[in-house]
Design goal:
Length: about 375
């Protein structure tokens, strides 16, 4: 069997080889608990400090503003739930196309009596700062993703944060799909909190971080020991944190060249479809995560396309990893009003630096062949 073409990098990515090498000592010989004072734990403590500095540098934050977590879901839940202080009934505002880590955390705080407003986006998936401005009344927190996980659209986060601040609200962004792929500078974005997840940028699964700007009020995620500046108790996952820092640094260093390659792959992919006169719509904004191609094929069925591509050794997705287990139209595709005769035929191809133009062409040719079959 020929090698698999993996084109679902928005779901997860391959572990970077250097990140793996950097992790190994902390999974074997250097197993000391980073909180212990004796010299055997010194290398774990030093590695943790170094990783925090590296991560902070990559997003222009201070090391004390980086809180290591178990990934994007935890970071998002912490930002949303940790902003709910007993007795403060001011609203949380978010967009209708957030990942379920945000939407379900919002649903949870609503059950506890904290109000949430869900704002509409336009046909490209963009939440307009004007829409936020006219809806913002007495809100304590606005949370809008930096990049959408299905259609790749980049939101105008700096403008949205400014509007939130003008109204006295804090601003959080779920940057899980953005960190390591597009430049992220917490100071120029002016965000108060930002979520990231290691496995989306070639780090291991189960590790991430929440950036919390100095002075931002936030309840602890967990109570226990004094780890993570007393706000997220629990023995640190040193090996994964070290791997995450290495992977992030590498991704940030090659971001520009990766972007050029990925945009080329996108062009190659689309030109095969266009030459074969395939009837499709590309979803999302022109300002998007490089390598994310969300396409809807007229009269097709996304699930069927996914399975037929799988038989050819090609991995894509029908949307978010979470939604592909439910056989219903994703909330994002519904919200951006993809026409009915195209919507069900939607798939997401997410290419990465591990792919090349040959992969892009092969995926497109496979789709042309599948779509031209009548059964
Ligand atoms: N937020 C977004 C935008 C995502 O794409 C994902 C994962 O797909 C998450 C949050 C959840 O991250 P994790 O898998 O690290 O829990």
């Amino acid at each position: 069997m020929s090698a698999v073409i993996y084109a679902d990098n928005a779901a997860t990515t391959a572990l970077d080889g250097d990140a793996f090498e950097a992790m190994k000592p902390f999974l074997t010989s250097e197993y000391g608990n980073a909180s212990q004072p004796y010299s055997f734990s010194r290398s774990a403590k030093k590695a943790l400090k170094g990783a925090r500095e590296t991560v902070a540098l990559c997003i222009n934050a201070s090391p004390e503003e980086i809180f290591f977590t178990s990934g994007g879901t935890e970071s998002d839940n912490w930002a949303i739930k940790g902003s709910c202080v007993h007795g403060d009934v001011r609203a949380t505002m978010t967009s209708r196309i957030e990942h379920h880590a945000i939407l379900n955390a919002c649903a949870a705080i609503e059950r506890f009596g904290f109000p949430v407003a869900y704002l509409p986006v336009d046909g490209k998936g963009i939440l307009s700062p004007d829409v936020l401005d006219s809806s913002l009344k007495n809100a304590k927190l606005v949370s809008v993703m930096m990049a959408n996980n299905e259609i790749g659209t980049l939101e105008p986060v700096a403008d949205l944060a400014r509007v939130a601040h003008d109204h006295g609200a804090l601003f959080h962004t779920d940057a899980v799909q953005a960190v390591g792929h597009v430049p992220v500078d917490v100071k120029s974005l002016s965000v108060d909190m930002l979520s990231a997840s290691g496995h989306k940028f070639n780090a291991p699964k189960g590790v991430g971080f929440l950036f919390v700007k100095k002075g931002t009020p936030l309840l602890p995620f967990s109570d226990g020991g004094a780890q993570e500046f007393g706000l997220r108790a629990g023995t640190e996952n040193v090996a994964s944190i070290v791997g995450m820092a290495v992977a992030l640094q590498k991704n940030c260093a090659r971001m520009e060249s990766a972007k050029r390659r990925l945009l080329n792959m996108e062009r190659e992919f689309l030109s095969v479809l266009t030459s074969a006169k395939v009837d499709y719509l590309r979803n999302g904004a022109s300002d998007h995560i490089p390598g994310n191609i969300n396409v809807s094929f007229r009269g097709a069925n996304g699930e069927m396309l996914l399975h037929r591509l799988d038989l050819k050794g090609i991995c894509v997705s029908t949307g978010s990893a979470c939604d592909s287990v439910n056989d219903k139209l994703s909330h994002v595709i519904q919200e951006i009003s993809v026409p009915k005769d195209y919507a069900r035929g939607t798939i997401r191809i997410s290419l990465a630096a591990t792919n090349d133009e040959g992969d892009a062409v092969k995926i497109a040719q496979a789709l042309v062949e599948i779509l031209s079959r009548k059964n």
